[in-house]
Automatic annotation (TrEMBL):
Keywords: NADP, Oxidoreductase. Coiled coil: none annotated. This is Enoyl reductase (ER) domain-containing protein. Gene3D superfamilies: Medium-chain alcohol dehydrogenases, catalytic domain, NAD(P)-binding Rossmann-like Domain. One of its GO terms (molecular function) is oxidoreductase activity. It holds the Pfam family ADH_N.
Length: 426
């Protein structure tokens, strides 16, 4: 009944009077000028009946319609046929789905996320439009949502997403490095700061931000090409642990922690790995970890002294924060460094004064500092490609969710012992 009432009202609004304003004196001309608007109303009612969503266009004097279709929180996964053949008053417009954040609510940031339909962009000169098919749910992306670090800077809806994998949809004038149909990595970390991240089906990027993918790398690995591998490469380079010495790290069971184990093993660096659950020990040792300590049930400092012959670790990497950082700093030898690159448990750091007096330094490390330099991006890309092709670094893919199921994907990504990286697919 509601749908019929809406349709009747819509047709009434769309049909001008025989002697109405704006030059609608000829009824045949009036009907012809509104055929596409009627078609849109009909398709909207069909979508409402099948998906539970409906939006009303704003009627403007020139008879054009502008609309935005959003999914409800309880809607089923979008059926692909519902995204085809959406009409405008001038021509058919191909649409795509995007997860957007509208504004910021500190008490419930994720309530501002929703899926909307947007028109596929055209490729401007020097730009590439990529059809993104896979993108991971990274802790950094969730941090931006929950702290409003992107949405809070803009008055318009923004899309996060720091990396992904896709296929070239179209290229603009002057683009020579990629072509339509080619497998690529859209490097969206910079574009994300302007609200144009990878949590959408299409994105337009500068040519230099689109990296071709060789056939030797799977789609799932390519979707995780940037954030974790580049961070691992940069951390191990800057911490400077010599071959044969011990590196201590927290969150060793994470996807990034596993990659640290893999690359450190390749470089001849021994690792002491802190985990929360004892059942992770054997799995990480099979991956190449030298030592694994469950910090929730073992005396970390005593175990590190035992492992290193009282020398303690040469350096440490921490992404947890809080009291765990205190344990980490106490496990590093005098004059050693602790690099903090995340805040999984706390945004605060706790360090004992005696450890500071021993010369242990705690400093932050961020990939964003490296990312902005084109020459650094080139080096990271080359090294990551070599490590992935040689299987030194092997990203672990986990459960996949449709783009419209982003809330379930976010929940899964934060489960303890979830396995590999959660991916949003489209």
């Amino acid at each position: 009944m509601v749908g019929v009432f809406f349709l009747q009202r819509s047709f009434h609004r769309a049909t001008p009077s025989l002697s109405g304003a704006n030059g609608y004196g000829n009824p045949l001309l009036s009907y012809a000028s509104n055929w596409s608007l009627w078609a849109f109303y009909l398709s909207s009612v069909i979508r409402w009946l099948s998906c539970g969503t409906l939006s009303v266009p704003d009627q403007t004097p020139d008879n054009s319609a502008v609309w935005l279709v959003s999914t409800s929180e309880t809607s089923d996964v979008y059926r692909r046929e519902h995204r085809k053949n959406k009409f405008s008053t001038t021509s058919d417009i191909r649409m795509y789905r995007a997860i957007v954040q509208r504004g910021y609510k500190a008490e419930d940031p994720e309530s501002t996320l929703e899926v909307v339909d947007k028109p596929i962009p055209s490729a401007s000169p020097g730009h590439v439009v990529v059809h993104i098919t896979l993108r991971p749910v990274n802790p950094y992306d969730l941090k931006l949502v929950r702290l409003g670090l992107v949405a809070g800077k803009h008055s318009f809806p923004v899309t996060v997403g720091s990396e992904g994998f896709g296929i070239v949809h179209s290229v603009g004038e002057g683009v020579t490095t990629v072509k339509p149909g080619q497998r690529v990595i859209p490097m969206t970390m910079v574009a994300m700061e302007e609200g144009n991240g990878s949590w959408q089906e299409y994105v337009s990027l500068k040519e230099e931000m689109v990296l071709p993918v060789p056939d030797t790398i799977t789609d799932e690995a390519a979707a995780q090409f940037v954030v974790n591998p580049w961070t691992v490469i940069g951390l191990l380079r800057d911490i400077g642990v010599p071959k044969g010495e011990y590196l201590l790290q927290t969150a060793a069971g994470s996807v990034l922690g596993r990659q640290i184990i893999q690359l450190a093993k390749h470089k001849g660096i021994k690792t002491i790995n802190l985990v929360r659950r004892p059942e992770q020990k054997e799995e990480l040792k099979a991956l190449g970890a030298d030592e694994v300590i469950c910090y929730t049930s073992e005396d970390v400092v005593s175990r590190v002294k035992e492992i290193t012959g009282n020398k303690l670790a040469y350096g440490a990497l921490d992404c947890v924060g809080g009291d765990v950082t205190k344990l980490v700093a106490a496990s590093v030898r005098g004059g050693g460094h602790v690099f903090v690159y995340g805040s999984l448990a706390s945004r605060d750091l706790i360090v004992s004064i005696p450890d500071v007096l021993r010369g242990v330094t705690v400093r932050g490390w961020s990939l964003l500092v490296e990312w902005v330099l084109p020459e650094k991006r080139k080096i990271y890309s080359q090294e990551t490609l070599e490590y992935m092709e040689s299987k030194v670094i092997q990203p672990l893919a986990g459960e996949k969710f449709d783009l419209a199921q982003f809330k379930e994907a976010i929940k899964k990504s934060e489960e303890v012992g979830r396995g590999g990286k959660v991916l949003l697919v489209s």
